[in-house]
Amino acid sequence: MAGAGSIGYTQTHRLYSTLPPNARLNISTDYATTPLLAHSSQSALQNPELSPEVRNGTTKRMNLFQSINDALSLSLAEDDSVILFGEDVAFGGVFRCSMKLAENYGSERVFNTPLSEQGIVGFAIGAAAEGMKAVAEIQFADYVYPAFDQLVNEAAKFRYRDGTEGRHVGGLTVRMPCGGVGHGAL
């Protein structure tokens, strides 16, 4: 029993978040043992969602930038309605993900735009509404804020606003690199 004037409650543990007892902080990630990231080409190809041709096909090792360039190149090669545009895209883009695409597919399909994120996304919405497969690149994800109105109030609601005309912006892709340089808000 506590004496007169004392509360009689002794706090023995903290009631707020703290580190686990044996936490290993600020160590590099071992990607070879991380369950979500530890895949060989053979384990990745075992995915039942892949077609048998893909599962039995060949693979090659690529980094993220090479895989983005390869995906953009495949899209441009197989569909003439695909267009790629943004600030410095024809020069290879800020992270060089679109290197040589303008040379291979022409300046009509891979081209630079003025410095206007709202204009880039607005143009992409219009192109997608007319049946193109528009791939708009915003140089950094932090720069998308001026275009948020276009994305939220135009692109997301386009099919409802178009009424019975049947148009939509389903062919719209907006690429926004995030975290590539270690700073920024996103």
Automatic annotation (TrEMBL):
Cofactor(s) required, per the database record: thiamine diphosphate
Pfam family, one: Transket_pyr
Domain Transketolase-like pyrimidine-binding: 62-183
UniProt xrefs under SMART domains: Transket_pyr
TM ranges: none
Gene Ontology BP annotations: branched-chain amino acid catabolic process; generation of precursor metabolites and energy; response to nutrient
Keyword field: Oxidoreductase
Protein name: 2-oxoisovalerate dehydrogenase subunit beta, mitochondrial
Species: Lachnellula hyalina
